[in-house]
Each structure stands twice: as C-alpha cells, then as structure tokens.
Amino acid sequence: MSTTDTERVGHLKVLGLNDDEIKVYQHLLRTGPSSITELGEAVPDRERSIDATLGGLVQAGLARRSGSDHSRYLPVPPDAGLEAMTLRRESELKQARIEVLNAYDEFRRTVHNESTTHLIEVVTGSAIVERIHQIKSGVQREILAIDSPPYYIGGPNQEEIDQLRRGVSYRVVYSPESVEVPGYLTENILPCVEAGEQARVLPDVPAKLTIIDGAIAFVSMSARDTDVNRSLLIIRPSSLLSALIGMFELCWRNALPLHASVGAEDDRLEPIERRLLALLATGAADDTIARTLGISRRTFFRYLERLMNRTGASTRFQLALHAARENWL
C-alpha cells in the first residue's frame, strides 16, 4: 500500500521542507515536468513566490530544470538530496539540544539558583515507573544494578533482554530476597543471564540501585527497609553519584557469581546437582530451591547430603568453597 499524500506531507516536513515546497513537490510527483506558469496556476495558495519555492526544491536536491530552454521543472532521484537534508536536520537537532540544555542551565543559575537542587530529584507515586523507563531507554553502554524487592514493575524483563541484544552490558548484584520472590528467578533473572547479563549474589545489599552509563542513578529502599516503595531518588553527576558507583563496585567484588547453568560439564555432577549448586549460591531458601527444581524437600535434602558427602563438606559454606574451587560456580 502506497504512502498517502497526508502521510507524505508529514515525512517531508520532518526533512525540513516548508508548506509551499511540499505542495509544489507533490504536484510535480503527480504530473511530471511542469513550467513555472503551470506550477504557479496549479498551486495558487502560496506564501512565497513560485521562483523561491522551486529554488528551495532545487537546493534540496528534489527537483531540477529540464527542457532545451530550461523552462520546466521535474522531480529527480532524491538519494543525494535526502542524505544532505537528513544530515542538516541532525545538525539542527543537535544544536537545538545544546540550546535547550543551555537554557535550563541558565534557569538553574538565575531563577532557581539553589546550587544543589538539580543534583537530586525525588519522584513519587505513579510517576516512578514512567521515569524509570524514560531514563533506562536512553542507555548507551552499561547498566550497573543492585537488585532487591519490592519491585515497581513485575513480570519478565524484556526491556533488558532487548538492550543486551543491541550491545548494552549489564552487571547486576542480586539480594537473596530477589530469588525468594515467586517466579522472579525463572521468569526474570535466569532469562536475562542467558541473554548475557553478568549476575552475582550478595547475602546483604545496602540499597536498591541502578546506574546508567555512569552518568545518572536511581536509588530506593530494599526489602529489608520497606515492604512497598513509594519514592525514588534520581542522582545526577556529583560526588554522591561517584560514591554510589564505588559502593556498587565494592558489592560486585564481594558477591558470588550466578550463572544460568553451573560451570563446565562435569561427569561427577548430574544436571540437577549443577542447578542446585547454582541456586544455593543465590542464598535462596530450601523451599524456593526445591520448588524451582520441581522436587520435594525430601529429595532436595537427599541431593544436598550426597553433594556434601562427595566433597567432604560438613557445612553449606564448605560446600560452596569446594564448588568455587572446582569451578562449579
């Protein structure tokens, strides 16, 4: 189905053509080569002269003179002209962005002159989810996160999987409470890890944190501080943001790796044992592990006892050390 005239008008405006140029160009596309007189009569309701309008189309690379006396105009293949117009519009948009940023900076210095208020933004209520999407959608390189319930958004994290596919890197430290949320491990964490997320687990996380490209962060309370999150802090470049990045890196260094499947294949381990070790590393409760594996508590303890006997471990901590040493984690 061909693009309608109305839709084409919108596209041509995006490229920077004015109303008169669009009308004349549309007429040329419908009728072919036309003289200045014919175009002037066919498009009478113009704000500019027909000569100026045609000059704009020629400059844009969308039309040219034709005929032995160069008295007629016709459309031309627009490839080169469109490329030049696109680059010009991109340059104009970049300049507009700079002007808006400068205008806001001037506002902050003169009208709203509290020097630190722009560094921290408090978002509450229904606006939280919208701001999170708005900030995360602008990511270019990397997202660092400390993950803990309660969550603003439920269900699978398709947004992260899409960003991983386009080259954005994710490093996430999960709290044990994250794994305890019903379905969160299998529906959210593991699909993201399989898509390329680097994940680790820390027994005690200091806050719930997301850092975008090292340039902006949002912080809220973790499950150990509150059952429901009703506010979100957005932190912009400052010593506070630097401290939050340092806090994340400290948590990352002290956390245990979490993989979608554990280590390399090892004929001493059954697949379910490798999965059980991965879940143990998350700090998940016994019931959660059994439910995720689809086995009973009794069967879970039987596997656990067999692993501990095989490794000579008398505690789960010793089992974890052995698994790490054998590269099972």
TrEMBL record:
SUPFAM superfamilies listed in its UniProt record? C-terminal effector domain of the bipartite response regulators (SSF46894), Winged helix' DNA-binding domain (SSF46785)
Q: Which InterPro entries match?
A: Sig_transdc_resp-reg_C-effctor, TrmB-like, Tscrpt_reg_LuxR_C, Tscrpt_reg_TrmB_N, WH-like_DNA-bd_sf, WH_DNA-bd_sf
Q: Which domain of life is it from?
A: Bacteria
Gene3D superfamilies reported in the protein's UniProt record: Winged helix-like DNA-binding domain superfamily/Winged helix DNA-binding domain
> Ranges for the HTH luxR-type domain?
262-327
Q: Which PANTHER family match?
A: HTH-TYPE TRANSCRIPTIONAL REGULATOR TRMBL2
Q: What's this protein's name?
A: Regulatory LuxR family protein
